[in-house]
Amino acid sequence: MIWTNKIKPRRTSEETDKIGDDVVSFSGYRIAKGYEMDKPTVAERIAQVFVLLAVVFCITNGFFMVLMPLDWYRTVPNVAVTGPANSHFIVDVGLAYGCSGITLLYGALYPLGRWLALVAGGSWLTVHGIFHVLQFASGHQTTAQFLQDTPGVLGPPALVIAALAILFSTQRMRLASVPRRGP
Q1: What is the pTM for the complete model shown?
Q2: Which of 10, 34, 88, 129 has its CA 20 to 30 A from that of 140?
């Protein structure tokens, strides 16, 4: 499990029960009013920008695929070499991009649910990127085709993985079994 240390002192369940209306729910966590989350560090802001770049790509590409699948097929290089256009399949993949983008957007905006949203939103992007790497490795794509596809296929998951690495390395997120650094 992933744990975040961003909330200042947590109250016990007995204290929370006594608070009543002074408790707000935020992404599944109950936080007493008046308790603030730490301000984001520069590293966290960089991670957030990485995720937002992936969000813009995913949502833009997803909308293009869903709203104009045949135009997307004709516009994006190397797509035509994969076979004839199948608008149903293009829309399906566009919906996957859109869902990934929306999930990543949640992760960029809400720190308490960030790790899960980044893992969930980045999973499809990562698996899709790995598939393309395997296609290239098995000789189904030329080097030129692979390099042309790389920014759009490997860029978004690389941004998400980099954001997760930044957050993990700064210990704003960590595996529950990993001891905290320092005092």
Answers
A1: 0.75
A2: 88
